[in-house]
Amino acid sequence: MAYPPIPPKPVIEPGANEDDKSTTHPLHVRIRQQEILADLGVLALQGRPFLELLNETARLTAEGMEAEFCKVLEYLPAQNRLLVRAGVGWHQGIVGVATVGADLESPSGFALHTGKPVISNHLENEQRFRTPELLVEHGIRRAMNVILQGDGSPYGVLEVDSRSEGEFSENDVSFLQGAANILGMAIERQRYELRLKAALDRQQMLVKETSHRVKNSLQMVSAMLRLQANTVGDDTLKQHLAEASSRVSAIGRAYERLSYDPDVENINLGAYLQEVCRDAISGLSQCKLDFELVDEMQLDTDRAISLALVINELVTNAVKHGLSNRSDGHVWVRLARNDENSAVISVRDDGVGLPPDFDLRRSKGLGMRIVAGLSEQLQAAISHRGGSNGTEFVLTFPLRRRVDR
Ligand SMILES: Nc1ncnc2c1ncn2[C@@H]1O[C@H](COP(=O)(O)OP(=O)(O)OP(=O)(O)O)[C@@H](O)[C@H]1O
Ligand SMILES: [Mg+2]
Asked: What are the strands of the beta sheet with 390-398, ordered from one edge?
């Protein structure tokens, strides 16, 4: 926003002493004006609702000028008029409704188009400008207008009016222009924030749309693999295809969540993993799944997907090897916080237990390679125990990626 470094000299009616720098206000009023400018500065940074900001500025400005009236006029270029957007002192039905002309014959129009402050201390004798009807109706004798800069182009005009006798001086213009400049910066900032928010909303909408499409594509791939699994005669191949379908669908579930969750960067882990476990079991057997969610938690999408793939493998193995597709088997999954920065998830079954030579790091199966590789990526610690009463894998993982220094 470009403000002139030195405010232009005010346009004062002929007859007034233009060089008179003396103040018509006592010192305590000038001090109060300084305080008000400081208050306005704070107000401008507070991010109050727009109309509240305008009205509060009008109230404080009127107080600083010891005037009964003040208004913020918004320029409506299509009509070349100024709308009373906010103000104090006005009869009911004026603020938000009444307009005044913005042509050069009106004092506020002149201030708007030329950028020069306008002082009219004797409206009844005013020769230069037409006195707006609104001022006549309210019995106003003197008025002062300064331009209110907006975002790139002027927002409108800030005007103080008074019924009392007395004179607005050049010092008053400095105060009024100071108040208008602060308000102008606040207007610019609010509009900038609104544009930023609109851009952010649009970006989130696009992320959701993309997630929705990725989810649909992955669901299609998963469905095709499942169909293929049902058509091949070879049981091993059938199982491989079903597992591939389940891996793809575990990723698809993440994009499904992203497409409707308000948060597009993090995933509600409990709900997501519960779906993944349900999908993994339902494709393979009738065994019972018991998912215990002790604590709700969020995890960023990439890490949540890695974790889901690990859990998918562990649940699949529990059904496939531990329970050998027994329909009366039981799989327990439990997710809880470990401490403030980490969580723990366990997958347990009541099956036959791990083979005696089982070695997680040396397993030739794709499943354990996925588990070991992704656990490392997740910076997770993994342990297991397997005996006659079943197998349990326990993963402790940080909720945020740890950065090694
Ligand atoms: N819950 C479990 N109960 C019993 N044995 C298990 C369990 N989990 C893993 N195993 C054993 O560990 C082996 C390695 O598992 P891994 O997932 O790596 O391979 P896979 O399941 O045989 O094949 P893939 O996962 O590549 O389809 C399994 O073959 C099985 O013998
Ligand atoms: Mg496996």
From this structure: 288-293, 330-337, 342-349, 390-398, 381-387
Look up tokens 């347990």; give the residue: 348
- Same topology, domains 11-194 and 266-398? Answer is no
Over the Cα atoms of the chain, what is R_g? 36
Nearest-CA residue for atom 22 of ligand 1: 365
| Alpha carbons 90 and 368: distance in angstroms, whole number | 77
- Convert 308-319 to b/e letters by CB count within 10 Å (16 or more is b): bbbbbbbbbbbb
Q: Could you count the other beta carbons within 10 Å of the beta carbon of residue 208? A: 17
For ligand 1, mutation pick of 235, 321, 371 (most atoms within 8 Å of CB) = 321
Quick one: which atom of ligand 1 is closest to the CA of 349?
1
Residue from 92, 74, 71 nearest 161 by CA: 71
- Which tens digit of pLDDT belongs to each residue from 157-202? 999 999 998 899 988 999 999 999 999 999 988 888 889 999 999 9
The amino acid at residue 402 is R
Ligand 1 mean position to 215 CA, how many Å? Answer: 28
Angle between helices 27-46 and 50-65 (to 10 degrees): 170
Domains of the chain, by residue range, sit at 11-194, 266-398
What residues have CB less than 8 Å from 87, skipping those under 6 apart?
A: 55, 58, 69, 70, 71, 72, 94, 95
Q: Which residues pair with 152 in a beta bridge?
A: none
- For position 367, what pLDDT does the model report? 94
Q: Distance between terminal CA atoms of the chain?
A: 43
We find that the CATH architecture of domain 11-194 is: 2-Layer Sandwich (3.30)
- Give the distance (Å) from ligand 1 centre to CA of residue 239: 13
CA-366 nearest atom, ligand 1: 26
The 10s digit of each residue's pLDDT in 295-342 is 999 999 999 999 999 999 999 999 999 998 677 899 999 999 999 999
Lowest mean pLDDT among 22-31, 168-177, 213-222: 22-31
pLDDT tens digits for range 342-368: 999 999 999 999 999 999 988 888 999
Fold exhibited by the domain 266-398:
Heat Shock Protein 90 (3.30.565)
Q: Token match 């969540």: residue?
A: 257
Ligand 1 atom closest to the Cα of residue 390 is 3
**Ligand 1 contacts CB of residue 317 (under 6 A):** yes
Q: Give yes or no for residue 50 CB within 6 A of ligand 1.
A: no
